[in-house]
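Notes from hallway chat w/ T.B., transcribed later so I don't forget. T.B. wanted the structure written out for a chain they're using in a teaching module, and asked if we could keep both sequence and structure tokens in one place. Agreed to drop them here.
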Amino acid sequence: MKEIFRKIWELALRYQDLRDDEGHVKTVLRFVIKLLSLIKAANPDIAIAAAILHDIGWAKIPKKIRAYAGAKTPEEDKTRRLWHEAEGVKEGRKILNKVGYDKDLSEQVLKIVDGHDTRKGTFSIEDSVVRDSDKLWRFSNKGFWTAIRILKMPPEQEYNKLKRQIDEEGFFFTEEARVLAREELEKRKKEMIKWVR
């Protein structure tokens, strides 16, 4: 990984994983790197920086509001997601300026951060890669079992929901992410079998 990404990571570290989702950003970053290896048209200088910064805005939201399952209505959920996106842009701009990141690249990175949870559709292949990777967290070992623990649901229920979402129109933007999601779900299926024994 480029040294500048390490600098961005170090500056963003104190803002990461504050929603009872330990490992979220590392997992998203791992999926971004995997998708970048499959989608050569995507610019790593945009996608990797956006992945590192995408959720730092949660650190500026009161703990009670940022809770993983804290919203009581869809409207409340959207409001807090918009809030964390806006805060993420503010903090992300400070970090990118501090490391001397290219201005044009910075604007593209921040455009991804601003709307990554709420925007309909996608505006670039890098936006697609980051947002697909963010969703792939749910299919990962950490993401799947975090949801089970926090939402107190049977693993089969979460598994079936994720299985349906793979092919839902507009859920994933790349076919490569769908393939990874199916691979991850197959691993979760094996874990569930062990879990019920």
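Follow-up for T.B.: The chain has one domain: 3-196. Might be a good example for the class.
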